[in-house]
Amino acid sequence: MIFFSDFDGTITQADVTDRILEELADPAWREVEELWVRGLIGSHECLERQMALVNAPRKRLDALIDAIPVDPSFPAFYQFTRQQRIPFYVVSDGFDYVIRRILRRAGVDGELRNGRHLFASAMRVEDGRVRVAFPNSCSEHGCATCKATVLRRVDRDSQPIIFAGDGLSDRFAVEETDIVFAKHQLLDYCRRQGIACHPFETFAEIQARLNNVVDIATMREAHPATTLAK
């Protein structure tokens, strides 16, 4: 199997980008957010306009990032995927600068930290201003990071794709996924759309489900919903 995960609100216990905007941006960011929520603009345009409103010294930004809590069970889950040789990728509309800093604090290293398994928006800080770029964007849905495109690019070789997420930015990814773990807005979306998914709150719950599979390799032949259902 191959495991993909959102970052903000999934691996972290709070949306880092929202915290940055709430504390460091001009209040006009909320007007832009409303346009995105209403579907009038994509997340690419939304984040580009919002991050232009952020003004903060690097030390203040770093202090805010360092205060973001991570799911306490995530580091152990990441080690579990490495022990089981399950490729683990992060796909996020969030920013690489933020993600790598938080992963370092969580003790996560390897291909995820060095960027080979990280697909996200790009950020650098210069003279108190945040500069952003979107190397994984697409025109199809206007996403800052097109998660569906990233999933389609992976050489699956008939391996099942697992995705874990929490927000509306994850809704296109589930269309390319065999097994979905969902919470919060993504869980509501899946239920409204009739998309099979497994509710979760922590990565410990996901790990417990995967541990219940006697032979992980059999999931390649078994129906995902049958294999992981209670």
Give a verbal description of the structure.
This protein has 230 residues and is an alpha/beta fold. The protein has a single domain, classed as Rossmann fold (3-Layer(aba) Sandwich). Helix content is 38%, strand content 16%. It has a 7-stranded mixed beta sheet with strand order 4-3-2-1-5-6-7, with helices on both faces. It is globular. The model is unreliable at 219-230 (pLDDT under 50).
Shape: globular
Query: What share of residues is helical?
Result: 25-40%
**What is the topology, as strand order, of the major beta sheet?**
4-3-2-1-5-6-7
Give a short account of the largest sheet. 7 strands, mixed
Task: Please tag this protein with its features.
230 residues, alpha/beta, Rossmann fold, 7 strands, 16% strand, globular
Write the layout of secondary structure elements.
Layout: E1 2-5, H1 16-24, H2 29-37, H3 43-51, H4 58-66, H5 74-83, E2 88-95, H6 96-105, E3 118-126, E4 129-133, H7 147-153, E5 161-165, E6 179-182, H8 184-193, E7 198-199, H9 203-211, H10 224-228
Parallel strand pairs: 1-2, 1-5, 2-3, 5-6, 6-7
Antiparallel strand pairs: 3-4
Helix pairs in contact: 2-3, 5-9
